[in-house]
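Sample pair:
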Amino acid sequence: MIAIGCDHAGIDLKPHVIAVLEELNLPYRDFGTFTHDRVDYPVYGELAARAVASGECELGIIMCGTGVGIGIAANKVQGIRCVMCSDCYSALMSREHNDANMLSMGARVVGSELAKMIVRTWLTATFNGERHARRVAQIATLDAGGTLQP
């Protein structure tokens, strides 16, 4: 299951993301928002991120005006590796090298067709493991409050 969430600035991009999920036959849970009324993006970033961190959802896709704020909020939830992407190469590398479990996009930054390409690329990529697994483990150490310094 894929968690999706957005604020009022990202709501117009959400149907395009859902179209890709449906094209790929991936179930999803929409954590809102559901109207154009002004809301606070951290609320929806957290809702989607907690669903991913708990295992309720395997991955998450979130949107706001730039993708930055909602992505920062999601990354404050332990266990989340949310990447903000506005290109397909970064989306691919974030999955292959960083095992990103959430994708953040900006509705005011990417158009609907590019967003669909990014989502499709991100969802179909897989983690390469090997040398990258050590680095992802280091990120997990930092996420848990540890240090990499001797």
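The mean pLDDT is 97.
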